[in-house]
Amino acid sequence: METTAGRWWAPGRVNLIGEHTDYNDGYVLPMALPLGVTCTAAAGPGGVVRLRSRQAPGDFVDTTMAALAAGGWSEFPAWSRYPLGVIREFERRGHEVPGVHLDLDGTVPIGAGLSSSAALSCSVAIALRDLFAPAVTDTELIDIARTAENVYAGVPTGTLDQSASLLCTAGHLLFLDTRTGATEQIPFDLAAFGLTLLIIDTGTPRRLVDSDYAARRAECAAAAAQLDAPTLRDIPFAAEADRLTDPLLRRRARHVITENARVLQIAEQLRTGADPRAIAPLLTAAHQSLRDDFEVSAPPLNTAVDAALAAGAHGARMTGAGFGGSILALADRDDTPNIVTAIRESFATKGFPPPRDYTATPSAGAHRLP
User: Fold this and answer.
1) End-to-end CA distance of the chain
2) Residue 297, number of CB atoms within 10 A of its CB
3) N or C terminus: which one in the chain shows less Cβ crowding within 10 Å?
4) Could you give the CA distance from residue 167 to residue 186 in angstroms, rounded to a whole number?
5) What pTM value is reported for the model?
6) Cα angle 72-159-148, degrees, rounded to a multiple of 5
């Protein structure tokens, strides 16, 4: 019997290591979160597209497949361009969507750097695949969701977020080579070592469309070109960045080159079953690189990292594209209450809004709900 309705879920993600490497053809190591977006979807007649979100109760979207094909996307609410972009991409690629009604509800905090937008896009993408195009592969689904963000929402992301939301498995990190698309599930059992991965949402919204994210991409491309390489992924040693005469491009390249090396080192350590405490210095080094060489941190992120480390975290860093959002901290389970308290006190002292804290448990990727 043909499926005409159902409920699907896609998670947000936190990236353990590998920031700003995805659009440089590099390596990333994310995991899915237990926070996500639920998409209740049903096939509709006559090319009608109906979109509702519990997070935007006043923004009802009622349109048609023909209207999506005609353009005029500026008339739609910004949040709706993600799911509408997914719908349009299915149709544009030859997968007929006769019409669809979508009701959305999410638990990923918006602007926290935990990929609420990818969870939104991927929940819709997997629903449309099951409803209308079951032969679509995971690889194409990732590209559909990424295109929805890049083209229709105007956010120049790579494939990290969509890959994590669709491909992660419970209890594992996803090692992804963004050039080849090759993946590996890396076991990540923190509980066995008495550890917790703490996420602190600083409450400083991250807005990629209005940020310097696109500028960082252009700087990386310029650095690679001056080093006669297709991308910075092709530069194996950080010392090669010293050939760049522009100090800004030198810093950008050094971050990407060293970040790729950190991803590979952490993946190898975790493959061998090493105590995850061993990776903590690399997490902190990543933050320093993002703060100083890539210059995408912000005062609340730095404050949270410094407070976490001072309170006993083994390692901590900003996570996500930066310019706001969240940090992660690897800590002994028994120490996490003190770390959260220390961060809250530091924020209060500096006049920042109270942060929110979460425990990151490696969770399953997108799937249909019973």
Assistant:
1) 16
2) 22
3) N
4) 12
5) 0.93
6) 15
Strands (E), the chain: 5-17, 27-43, 48-53, 61-64, 100-106, 172-177, 183-187, 195-204, 315-319, 325-332, 356-359, 367-368
73's CB contacts (< 8 A; 6+ apart) are 81, 84, 152
Distance CA 9, CA 132 (A): 17
Long-range CB pairs of 208-214, under 8 A, 24+ apart, other chains included: 208/155, 208/156, 208/157, 208/321, 208/323, 209/153, 209/154, 209/155, 211/321, 211/323, 212/296, 212/323, 213/155, 213/156, 213/321, 213/323, 214/156
SS3 assignment, position 54? coil
SS (H, E, C) 58-121: CCCEEEEHHHHHHCCHHHCCHHHHHHHHHHHHHHHCCCCCCCEEEEEEECCCCCCCCCHHHHHH
- Measured distance CA(346)–CA(340) in Å, rounded: 10
Structure tokens belonging to residue 102: 């979508």
How many angstroms separate the CA atoms of 304 and 291, rounded? 13
Q: Which residues of 121-141 are buried (b: 16+ CB within 10 A; e: fewer)?
A: bbbbbbbbbbbbbeebebebb
The rounded distance, in Å, linking the Cα atoms of 368 and 145 is 17
Whole-number pLDDT of residue 323? 87
pLDDT in tens, 97-132: 999 999 999 999 988 888 999 999 999 999 999 999
What Å distances lie between residue 42 and 102, 182, 199, 321, CA to CA? 7, 33, 35, 34
Q: Tell me, what's the pLDDT at 209?
A: 46
CA-only gyration radius of the chain, Å: 20
Pairing of strands 27-43, 61-64: unpaired
Residues annotated as catalytic are: 161
Q: Is-contact 361 35, C-beta < 8 A?
A: no
